[in-house]
Amino acid sequence: MLVTDLIRRKRDGVELQRNEIEFLVNGYTRDEIPDYQISSWLMAVLLRGMTRAELAALTETMLNSGQVLDFSELDAAKTDKHSTGGVGDKTSLIITPIVAAGGLYVPMISGRGLGHTGGTLDKLESIPGFRVELTTDEFLQQVREVGLAIIGQSANLVPADKLLYGLRDVTATVDNVSLIAASIMSKKIAAGADAIVLDVKVGDGAFMKTVEDARELARMMLELGRHAGREVVCVLTDMDQPLGYAVGNALEIRETIATLRGEGPPDFTELVLAASAHLLALSDLEIGQEQGRDRAAAAVQDGTALATYERWIAAQGGDPREAALQTAPEVRQVLAPTKGFVRSIGATAVGMAALRLGAGRQTKDDAIDHAVGIRCLMKRGDAVEAGEVLAEVHARDDESAKLAEAEVLEAYELADEAPAARPIVLETIA
Amino acid sequence: MLVTDLIRRKRDGVELQRNEIEFLVNGYTRDEIPDYQISSWLMAVLLRGMTRAELAALTETMLNSGQVLDFSELDAAKTDKHSTGGVGDKTSLIITPIVAAGGLYVPMISGRGLGHTGGTLDKLESIPGFRVELTTDEFLQQVREVGLAIIGQSANLVPADKLLYGLRDVTATVDNVSLIAASIMSKKIAAGADAIVLDVKVGDGAFMKTVEDARELARMMLELGRHAGREVVCVLTDMDQPLGYAVGNALEIRETIATLRGEGPPDFTELVLAASAHLLALSDLEIGQEQGRDRAAAAVQDGTALATYERWIAAQGGDPREAALQTAPEVRQVLAPTKGFVRSIGATAVGMAALRLGAGRQTKDDAIDHAVGIRCLMKRGDAVEAGEVLAEVHARDDESAKLAEAEVLEAYELADEAPAARPIVLETIA
Predict the structure, then answer these.
(1) Exposed, middle or buried by CB within 10 Å (0-12, 13-18, 19+), for A335?
(2) What is the pTM of this model?
(3) B46 interface with A at CB cutoff 8 Å
(4) Do B172 and A39 touch (CB under 8 A)?
(5) What is the value of ipTM here, to two decimals?
(6) Which helix H or strand E contains A251, and what residues bound it?
(7) Tell me, what's the pLDDT at A426?
(8) What is d(CA A77, CA B416) in angstroms, rounded to the nearest whole number?
């Protein structure tokens, strides 16, 4: 089999066979096919698309490139959740202790942020002492004992994805629904969950800008999950404005704790309850969506969700107390220049402002400043008076605070009339 | 400037600016941008195409990546000729001494064969002692004294093309008219000729399979040449059957000598005279196409073309005598199985048969057997009797001779009626 023939055929719109896709992906993973041939093939895939059969073959080849975790010894359903990434998205940190408190196991493998979107691992690392790297044995044991664990992708879990993602990132071949679906689903299936909720973000701050694109990605992932025998539900959720108030690592952990206490932002709390309800209903607890939601709300109410959170953080070496988190030396208020209603808050703009404050990384090797970030206290639809606080900038110094203040002000659009209400969960696809 | 941004924009169909193309090509030539980013960009270019402005920028950036030769001191026009490659195409070897005998200078930089197509340098190397590598000074001096020289591309002439071509060859990004046009014209302009004849091959054995594609390539190259202040004529010529009789290195040199003596195959002689006439008419001799053709014919008739050939070969260290050429130990005749007319001879099939005999190379590192090849004695339109000789196979041994015999027989299509006549020069674009 000649690599150039396979690239040429894909380039010319011909469907590749399963064994041909295996040849390319396994050859690359074993370092037998060079980067420059795979990047050429990826660009051809991006521009020509993939058939359903090609996508299934790619996902399974990636899945089988490494270890596939097995939790069959556990006595309750193993659940997982994935978000396609956004601004202020700390959902995983709250859902996991809620559903673990509800009686499920949550073995989660998560990622880091890049560009304007944050990453769950980066947020967890703002907790002093927290370890995101566990051995597979430690991971399995913690899930068994505490009910949940969130760790980084180890080298032997879907190594093909690690390599391909690294290459896609530097060759402008990231934003293709098939490649995104294969990357997400190979990891989620390898991580061993029986039931998975996929949160596909839609809007300005998300990879998917339109509901149509998000729907296409959701359907592909649903099909791949079911093909592998997993229960899957997709929720399409709003990412036109930042999620909740906080954007930035330690700020988002504070908001996580507040939400687990029942004191979270309304939009965010709604998403947490909806997604938790799906996971509880998908599992083997034999309860419906509504009962799932009640059980999630009860776990917040009676403190078991927060207690589970604390047990989990401590199990991974972290200090779960809010007081242990870093604070930024400079806090600057962003004031409304006029009276009006918040019509929109550009999620990408807020994400980029947080990135420039140091909350994210522009290249893979950048260090993160866990203390800094932004809190968008006024959200879409809120009425404000001139001079009222729209947001807070948490910065390392005065200069960067001023810069971020201007950027956040620019991200806010005020209008004379309130915008039409938009629910946080736009659509559920099951 | 971020490489991924430029790839992304090309991928999304946005035109790149001149400085952006310079950034990519110069960065790659200086080894500052890795292979895998350029191959991704090349695939995007292949699938999205290039605008005229992008193509001009690419060609000029490649041209300026190395030395540009200057022959302005010479007292007559400097001419050059390029063929897009085919089977049995030894045209350059005959045209160059003809037009040099006619009073022009021909500084030619040529290439090697790959796949089923032969290369001028490989053919020349079947002449004992012939050196295809001269220093720039030796090259200039020989053109000045003998009137012509044909050499290989030196490292400092269009180094960007050398690198890009090598990468395209292994990433399925060769066959795109813009990339082909930029590669050819950057080299032809750098080689310093004032007048250039471009022979665009069309048909089964050529890269351009249709007249439409050939026309597009021809027009692009004409525009690039004129933009650089060069006189250019394109001839679209037939490559559905091998050109002349001989396919294979020493065999083609023999046919070169025969043609210079006025004893060449009719189709091939016609192409040689037509292309020579264009070059003579394009130059500063102030003669027209018809006079150019007369002068070319006269140079063959009176022996000055052959004498110039011998002077040239000797100047580059070669032995110009036909007797000095290698012969293959096995010559096997391919006989007509039935009576009929030759309807077609698959040029690619004959080229591949010659390649497998050892006349070409499958990978860049293969060695060439200069003695072997095929002579297609019966050409399209010829009437043959059953048992008459269609072709000769010149082979290293009996086994490979038999294999090639079967392949050549398969390439010949006989029919009851003579096919419609097809001229060798299909179209002239000036």
Answers:
(1) middle
(2) 0.86
(3) yes
(4) no
(5) 0.84
(6) helix A249-260
(7) 94
(8) 77
